[in-house]
Amino acid sequence: MSVIGRRTREILIVASKSSTSGMGKKHRAPRLIVVKQAEHLTKNMIRVTFAGDALKEFPVGREGGNCKIMLPADGQSLDEFSVQLERGPKPVTRTYTVRAFRQDSLELDIDFVAHGDNGPAARWAMSAAPGSFCGFAGPSMPKLSTFHADTYLLAADMSALPVASVTLETMPRDAKGVAVFEILSEEDRQEINAPPGIDIHWIVSPDPHRPSRLQEEFIRNMTWPAGSLQTCIAGESGVIRSLRGFLHNEKAVPRENTYISGYWKIGLVEDEHQAEKRAESQ
Ligand SMILES: Cc1cc2nc3c(=O)[nH]c(=O)nc-3n(C[C@H](O)[C@H](O)[C@H](O)COP(=O)(O)OP(=O)(O)OC[C@H]3O[C@@H](n4cnc5c(N)ncnc54)[C@H](O)[C@@H]3O)c2cc1C
User: Fold this and answer.
1) Distance from residue 159's CA to the centre of ligand 1 (Å)
2) What separation in Å is there between the alpha carbon of 270 and the centre of ligand 1?
3) Domain spanning 3-137 has what CATH number?
4) Span 110-126, average pLDDT
5) Averaged pLDDT for residues 23-27
6) Every domain range in the chain assigned CATH 3.40.50.80
7) What pLDDT band is residue 15 in, cutting at 50, 70 and 90?
8) CA-based torsion, 4, 80, 59, 240: positive or negative
9) Residue 263 · residue 270 · CB < 8 Å
10) What confidence score (pLDDT) does residue 118 get?
11) Which of 113, 165, 185 should be mutated for ligand 1, with most atoms under 8 A from CB?
């Protein structure tokens, strides 16, 4: 093993230890994960593949669950960052989705929207290369794991394409329904292994910072399905707020059948957006 490899392994062991909170609940310390490959999946989506021993014991079946990505400061070394992960202060942290985990090769895929260099996570992904590193906490359980509806409705912008894609890949092959995906350009269409009964519509909307009503218009105008409905809907918070009102108030879709979540908000960095969501839920 090279010196760097050995050093990395030592750091990973330190960074993977569990800690116990004051409440007696065990938290896994963040993993320090290293990039194997980063490539454009589509024009504005970067797939970052992490690999290595830090992914040993990574739970299987968590595709579609969310995770926290902790970002090193510009120019920070792996050694410095591993110490920071262990001792603080907490690095800049953003929320992402587990797109795929391959246990046999210990590889983890996360898809990052390359929305510009004003976001630390997008900027990190845009310059990620083999050997780049970040912290990882989680993952949570998948957002949708039981499928029991007559019809499925999926709607996503590019930030939520990972959770929507996992949901489409996981649902029964005879599932029926509609998916409406808003992407930044024609070149952001992705191949998704969806059940043949799911009708996928792609809408191009090049400016994510202008509030868009295209998905809602599409959903309002479609023939409303009879029977029970389950949803997987996520994206920009303003779009989601309006869609949530439509589904619950106008269509009376039971809340337990709707996964619907604001993933980011125009004009707010993630911490501000999360704080706003917490305040609203209280
Ligand atoms: C449960 C969950 C799962 C998520 N999964 C994913 C995922 O798998 N892939 C993914 O790419 N994103 C995902 N997101 C969204 C991601 O957390 C946010 O986009 C986050 O703000 C990105 O951080 P940043 O550092 O790039 O930008 P920030 O520093 O948070 O924001 C900087 C600026 O960029 C704007 N901005 C943020 N996100 C976008 C965007 N998508 N498009 C255009 N402008 C934006 C903000 O409004 C702000 O003005 C998820 C969010 C949640 C809550």
Assistant:
1) 7
2) 7
3) 2.40.30.10
4) 97
5) 47
6) 151-281
7) very low
8) negative
9) no
10) 93
11) 113
